[in-house]
Design goal:
Helix content: 55-70%
Largest sheet: none
Oligomer: single chain
Radius of gyration: 14 Å
Shape: globular
Strand content: under 5%
Order of helices and strands: HHHHHH
Distance between the termini: 16 Å
Length: 109
């Protein structure tokens, strides 16, 4: 199996999906311009004052976008509420739709 490059727009879409979490978007949207570009430096600085879970969501979003913030799967699984963890999983599937489960949980597509 060979690795496939992922298109940058899917990476950004996945990151924005995480940032759009209801618990986060009201504070995060000021760091996202109309073109969907994220001011990661300012966002991460602001998120340092937010809850641990919200900061972790920001890290997950950046990790999906450019791979420079290591969110850590274990931390995501043990820290995030179910709806926020689900949003991260949905974002991963935006990047890799070929890894999505078949309806009914029968396996991957």
């Amino acid at each position: 199996m060979t690795a496939r490059p992922i298109e940058a727009r899917r990476e950004r879409a996945a990151a924005l999906h995480v940032l759009a979490a209801p618990c986060l978007w009201a504070r995060a949207r000021r760091f996202v311009d109309d073109a969907g570009e994220v001011d990661w430096l300012r966002l991460e600085l602001a998120a340092g004052q937010w809850s641990w879970g919200d900061w972790l969501l920001v890290c997950a979003a950046r990790d999906l976008d450019d791979g420079t913030a290591a969110a850590g799967l274990r931390r995501l699984c043990t820290t995030l509420a179910p709806q926020e963890l689900r949003r991260v999983v949905e974002a991963v599937l935006l990047l890799r739709p070929d890894a999505a489960f078949e309806p009914g949980g029968e396996g991957v597509r």
